[in-house]
Amino acid sequence: MLVRNQESMEKGMSITYSDIRSQHKLLQEKYKARKELLQSDAQDLMKEYYESLDLPASSWKDKEGVEQPYVRSCIINQQGDLEYRPAHVVQLDEDYRLNFQMGTMVNDTLCVGDWYYVAISLWYENSLLHVSVANGAHEFTIPKGTVTDRFFEVTSAIKTVIHTGLDDPELD
């Protein structure tokens, strides 16, 4: 037996095409604002991480003599390969998360470079920024605002993941 909710039906019948278009536009605006906010947060994280590394120079030179960054962001493309993508253009996933791989140059003496990548995911939940490092191995809730060293714990976790990943007890 079909039981109808009269109130829901009446409300639904009063919705016009204009209402649907307005709702769609509002959704697009919210999506764009969320994407831009997360992209900005990702850039802030990368900048704070970069500044925390006490690098010997602002960049290194590859075998062609081209200046390269010590820190970069990449995505894993549909083929499963790493693809350079600046943080400000990384797209959100279906859960409105910004996922990327943060690469750190770990050996700039080879002129081709050895990169170490750490998975990073940023998202908002209940108006609070959350950051996952290394596929959920470390998760953080970040304070609101422009606090100095806002990503201190996150940058520390990234460095720890890299340092631990570059150690092999079997070689001791």
Textual characterization of the structure:
The radius of gyration is 22 Å and the shape is elongated. It contains three helices and eight strands, in the order H-H-E-E-E-E-E-E-E-E-H. It has one domain (9-167). Helix 2 packs across helix 3 (152-165). The chain has a six-stranded antiparallel beta sheet, covered by helices on one side. By secondary structure, it is an alpha+beta fold. The relative contact order is 0.13. The longest helix has 36 residues, at 17-52.
Largest sheet: 6 strands, antiparallel
Beta-strand fraction estimate:
25-35%
Q: Tell me the series of helices and strands, N- to C-terminal.
A: HHEEEEEEEEH
Query: What value does the average pLDDT take?
Result: 91
Total domain modules: 1
Distance between the termini: 72 Å
**Strands side by side in the biggest sheet:** 4-3-5-6-7-8
Number of helices: 3
Quickly give the structural class: alpha+beta
Shape: elongated
Low-confidence stretches: none
Number of strands: 8
C-alpha Rg (nearest Å): 22 Å
The share of residues in helices is: 25-40%
Strand and helix layout:
Layout: H1 6-13, H2 17-52, E1 60-61, E2 67-68, E3 71-76, E4 82-84, E5 98-107, E6 114-125, E7 128-133, E8 138-142, H3 152-165
Antiparallel strand pairs: 1-2, 3-4, 3-5, 5-6, 6-7, 7-8
